[in-house]
Structure formats: structure tokens, C-alpha cells
Amino acid sequence: MKNIMKNSLLSFLVGTMIFVGCTREEEELRLDPTLSTMRVENIGSDSAMITGFVIAEGDGFSEKGVVYDIDQDPTIESNKVTYADTADNAAYSVVIRDLDYATKYYVRAYAMNGTTAIYGDTLSFTTKPIVPVLTTAEITNITGNSASGGGEVTIAGGAAVTAYGICYSTEQDPTTEDQITEDGSGTGAFTSELTELLGNTTYYVRSYATNSAGTGYGPEVSFTTLVDLPAVATGAVSNISKTGATVAGSLSSDGGGTITERGIVWGLNEDPTTADNKIADAATDIGDFTVDVSGLELSTSYHVRAYAINSAGTSYGDDVTFTTLADITTFWVVGDYNGWDNSDNAEMLVSTESSNGMAEGYVYLTTGGIKLVTDHSWDNAHTFGDDGSGNLTNPGGNITVAADGYYRVRANLTDMTYSLELTDWGVIGDATPGGWDTDTNLSYDVDHKIWIGGVNLKADGAFKFRANDDWAINYGSSTGDANLNEGGDNIPSPGVAADYAVTLNLSTPNTYTYAANRWGVIGNATSGAWDNDTDLTWDEGNGVFTVTLDLVVGEWKYRANDDWAINLGGDLGVLAQDGGNFAIAEDGNYTITLNPWTLTGTITKN
Predict the structure, then answer these.
(1) Predicted model pTM
(2) Which residues, 6+ apart, have CB-to-CB distance to 72 below 8 Å?
(3) According to the model, what pLDDT value does residue 237 have?
(4) For the segment 369-394, what is each residue's pLDDT rounded down to a tens digit?
(5) Quick check: 546 and 594 in contact, CB under 8 A?
(6) Residue 271 DSSP class
């Protein structure tokens, strides 16, 4: 287009120069009339502006303008637009209107020289597409929270329809910036499903379709949802007791209706309803609420749900379960052993859900007496002693402790009985030195409230813990971990024959545990470097694990069971898990000891 204009202007200038240089006789000469179609601009979907240029007018033009058609080389017999301005300019522009969208047109400048039409060169252009044209379907299947709609793309607009659906809002004239459905592409009829609507609410709906020209919308329709069920959620359960609990709920929507009741339902089975058990809250407004449920059974699992009612019906929150507490009793053991300190510092007895009221605990007692209290007030109603015949009563006399020792103390308020049994503990089993016939005794560490000992365990076999060289009280592990239970399964040997630091911890009522660890030293100061442990052996006389070995300049630390899960370092006087390495400044022969229960160690150069 630019080259055409340049050539036309050049021809015009050359012609002008020739005319100026002519003589008077030559002034009567005229150039042949010539036109140029210069450019097409401002192309729209139904119009465009065409500029022509008069290069030579000959004897004068009586009319000029533009002709156009969908066929090439249009003439004045096709379609034309006449330039209406009277200004005698070489360049002129006309606007062609009422064109079809997305259509290719051919266009030429024209002028009438007498009765002869002359034409410029032919240019072409394509009008732009329009946005799609649609209809919007009426809304059907209206409920409290959903409806069906749709529409039809009747005119694609000259470009591919990439998406269509409906847009909707509670405000008029919704657009694709509001809520929409996405139902496909192309043309034709489509259906749409509107979900998660608000109850008893008026919505405005328009179909939409998108092509490269933009988004077109169908006519607007409106509808009103029915009253919907309320929206209610079940919250957390708190303040769980033996016979009650507090249940939270939240009403977030009234569904467009009036809430007549909200509250909590509960039962023994999943998804309880108002036909089971219910407690209505005093209020009926939207918001959070709590309800106290009482009169429940001990140690029982319950299902609860929040509920709300309006004219559409009853809705429920999710099912939540909780279990009421068992009738668990806690006693504090107060007496001569602790200076009659009736506080949380006293040792405890605790019952379990399955112990039928029997509370139990292991306590190191001294000669004298004790009493059992269920709080720290010394109130007679919470203080229990001996009734003179070996049973409990309020407040009763002191319960006699005949000798210092480690006792299993039991008490039961159901039948008002109690017992004190002096115990001494050991390990027994075919993994131990005495087999299943003879216990290997442990010793009691008063400061740490644990039974301890070094025991040589075999690579295979099993063991258990028992009291008083008798099977009346024994513990194994039916869970296969560090937890113990009375009469539980045999505990398998750790699998490596060695001396083990064995720990029995009965200090927490009804939560009894054990540990069995073999110890070694490791580091680049040892012959095994950081890859292989050098084992320690049990020195029963000194109550420590020990080894004598050659060390070189380097570092070392203690490690259990050839694994880094348990390792000790830092300060030999206060060993710490994952503590720092110990340094060896001089090659030589050394003796190392370890007390894994007091977390102390020594190293001596021989």
C-alpha cells in the first residue's frame, strides 16, 4: 500500500513538472485521467474507510468514490460509495457501511470522466467478526439450592466459539466476572446446571459465548429459589466427663427461611436424628452455639450431630464421636515415706477403664503408715484409711507399712478393699543366664524410681519380668514394643548375645515400660573407627559397663545397639543424647566405663 502511494505521488509530481515546463501552445494538452486506491483503514465488523488518490484528472471528473464487492475487480455496477465533499483534493476518503462481518471484500477507487468510469488498483480487506449471538433458556427444576438453565448459540459471529454457558448473580446484568457455568464450545443449544445457590433468593441469568471478538450475552431471565434446608455444622466436643460433654455447633445459613429450632442430637449409632435424643439451643439465630449433653453412660462411645429446622425441613452437621470417661479413681499415697505431704508430689494410684474400679501403683514406702486421698484437702469424704479389719473407710486409721520396700499398692472404692504387696524384681527366661528356672535380680534405683541391672542375654530365646521369684506378678509385652502388661507375652531376645543394660520402669501407674540396650564405644580413636562399635561388658561389682582398649589420637563417643538412635556424648559427668564427641589427645591404653542410668562415664589412661 505504501509503495502504491509513493509511486502515485511520484507520477503526479512528474506530471506537474512537465506541465509547468510547456509553452502556451502546450497548455492545451491534458494528461490521461488516472486514479490510485491508496489504503484501507478503520476496518470494523460492518464498515471500513477507503482512501483514493487522483493522479491526473484529464478534462475533469464529474464523480469519484469507491466501488466494492465480494468479487474481484468491482465496478460501478457492483456497489459504490460516492465521495460527497466538494473540496478539490487529490486524496479523498469514503466510509463503506453495512458490510457483512468476517467477510472478504475487494475495493477500488473510481471516477467518472465524462461517461467513462476509470478505476484505481484493487485492494482487499476482511471485516472483523462479531461477538456470538445467543438466546437464554427459561429456568426449570428450581429447588432451594439448584436449578437448570441453558441457551443456544445461534450465530457464531464469524469466529470459533471457544466457550459458552450461563452467568448468574443476585444482581442484574450478570457477566462472566460473576458466577458462571462452562458447558462447551461451538454453536447450538446447551443446558446448564446451577448449584450451591442460596435459598429463597432471586437470581439473574444470561447465556454467554466467547470468540475472538469477545463475549456475547443472551437476554436476561430471572428466577427465585425455594426455601432451602439450613446449613449447619458440628463442632468440637469438649468438657468430656464420665456422664456428659459439651458439643459445639454452627448455623451458617437459614436457607432463606425462618429457623424454628437448632441444637444437638446424639445416640449410640452413627448419624443420629431428632428421633433419637436431642437438646435444642435456646437461640435460633445464625452463628455458633454450644449445648451441654448430660445423663450419659460411663466409658461409652456416642455419636453427635448439630441440627437446625426451618420450613424446608431438618438438616444435620457431620457425625462426630466421643467417648465418656470411665469411672477412673486417682489416689494420692500420703504417709511417713514422704513426710505426709498431701500434694501433687505424692505418689499416685490410678484405675483404668478395664480395672473395675481397682486403682494401682508402685511406691517405695518406708516403715510407718500411709493414707489414701482423692484430693489434697484432707476432707474426711476424700480421705481413706483402714477400718480396723483390713478394708477402706472414711477417714479410717493409718494403713500400716511393716518394712521399707517397693510395694504394689492397690485400692478399690467399689468394694472398699486395699492391699500392699512388697516386691523385688528380676528377669527370667531362656534368653537369660538362669533360664526359666532362676531369676536374674535387678536392683532398685531410688533416685530414678527404676529397677536396673546388667544382664547377659543370649542371641535367641525370650524373657519376662517377675516379682518375688514367683509368677503371681509378672509382666511381658503383648504389644511388641517397650510397653508392658501384666501376664503379657514373652519378650523376644534383642538378637545379639551380649551384656545388656536392662531397665524396668513401674513408676507411672498402669503405664509400665522396659528397655534393654547393649553399649559400645565408636569413633576414629578406636580400632573400629566410625564404622564398628567396640562393646562394653557389665561389671557387676562396680555397677558399670566397661572396656579396656587401645586408643589413638582422635574422637569417640558412646553408642547403643550399633545404631545412632541412642548415643551419648558431651560431658562425662553429665552425658547427653547426641552430645559432642570426646577427644583423645595421646595414643595409649585406656579403660572406659559407663553408667547408662545415671548418665555418667569415665576414661582412664592405663
Answers:
(1) 0.55
(2) 106, 122
(3) 97
(4) 999 999 999 999 999 999 999 999 99
(5) yes
(6) S
DSSP 135-194: EEPPPBS--SS-EEEEEEEEE--SS---EEEEEEESSSS--TTSEE---BSSSEEEEEEE
Average pLDDT of every residue of the chain: 93
Three-state secondary-structure class, residue 19? helix
Is 424-517 a CATH 2.60.40.3620 domain?
yes
2-126 has which CATH code?
2.60.40.10
* Secondary structure class of 533 (helix, strand, coil): coil
568 burial (CB, 10 Å; 0-12 / 13-18 / 19+) is buried
Q: DSSP code of 391?
A: B
List Cα–Cα distances, 377 to 341, 382, 383, 582, 600, in angstroms. 11, 8, 9, 52, 41
CATH, domain range 330-422? 2.60.40.3620
CATH class of 519-605: mainly beta
| pLDDT for residue 557 is more than 80 | yes
What pLDDT is stored for residue 31 in this prediction? 64
What is the CATH architecture assignment of 232-323? Sandwich (2.60)
Provide the CATH topology of domain 133-224: Immunoglobulin-like (2.60.40)
CA distance 277 to 268: 10
Residue 264, classified by CB atoms within 10 Å of its CB into exposed (0-12), middle (13-18) or buried (19+), is buried
Q: How far apart (Å, rounded) are the C-alpha atoms in residues 98 and 83?
A: 17
Gap between the Cα atoms of 423 and 364, Å rounded: 10
Q: Look at the alpha carbons of 547, 552, 553, 557 in this order and tell me if their dihedral is positive or negative.
A: negative
- 424-517 matches 133-224 in CATH topology: yes
- The pLDDT tens digits for 217-259 are 999 999 999 999 999 999 999 999 889 999 999 999 999 999 9
Give the Cα-Cα-Cα angle 348, 354, 355 (nearest 5 degrees). Answer: 50
All residues at 6 or more sequence positions from 53 whose CB lies less than 8 Å from its CB, including other chains? 5, 8, 9, 35, 36, 37, 38, 90, 91, 92, 109, 120
What's the whole-number mean pLDDT along residues 3-31? 37
H/E stretch holding 7 reads: helix 2-20
pLDDT in tens, 44-80: 999 999 999 988 877 678 899 999 999 999 999 999 9
Instruction: State whether the Cα torsion 436-437-443-448 is positive or negative.
Output: positive
For the chain, the structural domain boundaries read: 2-126, 133-224, 232-323, 330-422, 424-517, 519-605
Question: CA 435, CA 328: separation in Å to the nearest integer?
Answer: 39
Grid coordinates representing 132 are 456470538
pLDDT of 140 strictly over 90: yes
User: How far apart are alpha carbons 581 and 572 in whole angstroms?
Assistant: 10
